[in-house]
Structures are given as C-alpha cells and as structure tokens.
Write a structure and sequence with these properties.
- This protein has helices spanning 2-38, 41-67, 82-110, 117-139, 146-175, 179-207, 217-225, 260-275, and strands at residues 230-240, 246-254, 277-290, 293-302.
- By secondary structure, the protein is of the alpha+beta class.
- The protein folds into 2 domains: 2-207, Alpha-lytic protease prodomain-like, CATH 1.20.1510.10; 217-302, Cation efflux protein, cytoplasmic domain (Alpha-Beta Plaits, 2-Layer Sandwich), CATH 3.30.70.1350.
- A 4-stranded mixed β-sheet has the order 1-2-3-4, with helices on one face.
- Helix 2 (41-67) packs antiparallel against helix 3, helix 2 packs antiparallel against helix 5 (146-175) and helix 2 packs parallel to helix 6 (179-207).
Length: 303
C-alpha cells in the first residue's frame, strides 16, 4: 500500500510539473512579445529568466523519470544522480543568462530606447500572477528535491522581478525614468547569478563524491570505534550517492573475529541512525597480537 501511495505521489508531482511547464512557456511567449512591442529590456530579461525556469522544470521532470529507473549492470548504483546532473545543467544555464542580461543592460546605457510603460505594467502583472501560481504548485515538492527547490526559488525570484518591472513601468509613466528599466535588469541579472552561486558548490560537491557537509569523518570513526569489539577503523570514505543517500566504505579491525555477526549489524545500525548512511561496505580485519607481532586476516562483508 505504501509503495502504491509513493507512485501516486510521484505521478501527481509529474502532473504538477507538467502544468507548471505549460503555463511558464505561455508566459515566456507573452513577455517576449510584450517586451518587443514596448521596447522594455527588463521585460525581455524577465522572459529569459522565466524561460530558464520552464526549461529547468522540464529538465527536472525528465531527470525524475530517469532517476526512477532501477539499478542495472551498467549503473549499479541506479540513476538517481540524473537529478544532480540536471541541477548542474540548470545552474550553468542560469549563469549564462545572468551574464547575457548584464551585457544587454550595459549596452542599453549607450543606446537608450523609448519604453511603453503601460505594456510593461500589464504584461508584468500577468507574469506576477503566473509566477505565484507556479511557486504554489512546486512548493510542496521543493522540500525533498534539489531540482524542484531550485525551480521554486527561481519562480519566487521571478515574482519579485515582476514586481520590480511593474515599479519600473510606473516610474516611466510618471517621471519618464527610462534608466530604471536598465537598473532593474541589472538587479534581475544579479539575483540570477546569486541563486546559481549559492547552489553550484553543493551540486559540484555531490558530483565530486565529497563527504556530506553535515558529516564529520572523525566523528564517524569515533562512533564506529565505540562499538564493543572494534579495535580500529581506517581507510574511511564517505560520499553521497545522490541528494538524499549517503554511502561509506571502511576497514574495521576487530578484537575477536568470532563476534563479527554481532558487530556488523551494530556498526551498520549506528551509521544509519547517527549519520544517515544507508549504504555501507565494511572490510573486517582481525588483529592477533603475539610478542608484539601483528598478523591480519581480512574478509570483506558488504551490505
């Protein structure tokens, strides 16, 4: 029953993503047309950012489907890292969009254009409503997924950018402050780059098989050596299989090899409970000391 519920939740999530992608693509087209008609660079900038959100949601949806594939002889750990790779693609594209917007904004300083304020306000107001709706659709899914969380933050930033565009259109109508459009474009670009900069390190850290940020190898070793019957723990490697699964491999030196069947589950239980390490590969070694000479008998035990 729980498995059926899990599949139902995943299918519902896919439908929500599909709806969010559709309305964001429609919004992107409306913003581009409105930006061309009005001459508003900030409106086109917001459209590009919104398009990156739609693309991000599409990539996330495809990655979710790939990630559900079971392990096979080619991908023995499974395909869950597809979502991490998708996140990297989305963030790199955001960086490119951010720098492009900065380039366009600075170029507009030297070639200012007349902007129709009412068109900007109307299209941006529609964008604000859709951005808020998309954020609501993806909010519950963003809690457990790096991809969806990034998309959710993008939609929130889009909503804020739409508010900014409305302000710029109002200033143009009231005071003819055309420079406000360029200034807001720079703010949008800065926010896009800020988002990418905050998420890129974690994404790269996972792909580089770095130790999870909330786990200390020294604490893991101390915990494992605290299990009765364990003499020493060394050759420890900890990494993330994906955003939620941690893995470990280590050599464990035992006082008495006869107690391995009790020690092994105790170690795995501590690793799972204390550090959330669900996949562990332990190589057990027995140390026999006689006249200060130590001989080692090794045997591997895997999860």
């Amino acid at each position: 029953m729980s498995e059926q519920h899990h599949h139902h939740v995943e299918d519902l999530g896919d439908k929500r993503l599909g709806l969010a992608i559709a309305i964001n693509m429609l919004l992107t087209v409306a913003q581009v047309v409105g930006g061309i008609i009005s001459g508003s660079l900030s409106l086109i900038a917001d459209a590009l950012h919104n398009f990156s959100d739609a693309a991000s949601l599409l990539i996330a949806l495809v990655a979710r489907k790939i990630g559900r594939q079971p392990p096979d002889l080619i991908r023995t750990f499974g395909y869950k890292r597809a979502e991490v790779i998708a996140t990297l693609i989305n963030l790199v594209s955001l960086v490119l969009v951010g720098f492009y917007l900065i380039y366009e904004a600075l170029w507009r300083v030297f070639e200012p254009q007349v902007i129709e304020g009412w068109t900007v306000i109307i299209v941006a107001a529609i964008a604000l409503v859709i951005d808020v709706a998309t954020a609501i659709i993806t909010f519950s899914m963003s809690k457990n997924s790096m991809n969806i969380r990034a998309a959710f933050l993008h939609n929130v930033s889009d909503a804020l950018a739409s508010v900014g565009v409305i302000i710029a259109g109002t200033l143009i109508l009231l005071y003819e402050w055309y420079w406000s459009d360029t200034l807001l474009t720079l703010f949008i670009a800065g926010y896009v780059l800020y988002q990418a900069a905050t998420m890129l390190p974690k994404t790269i850290h996972i792909l580089m098989q770095g130790t999870p940020e909330d786990i200390s190898i020294d604490e893991v070793i101390t915990c494992m050596q605290g299990v009765p019957g364990v003499l020493n723990v060394h050759h420890v490697h900890i990494w993330q299989l994906d955003e939620h699964q941690n893995a470990l491999e280590a050599h464990v030196q035992l006082l008495d090899y006869q107690h391995i069947e009790h020690i092994k589950p105790a170690l795995k239980g501590e690793l799972l409970q204390r550090f959330g390490i669900s996949h562990s590969t332990l190589e057990f070694e027995q140390s026999i000391c006689s006249d200060n000479v130590s001989s080692v008998d090794s045997k591997k035990s895997e999860l």
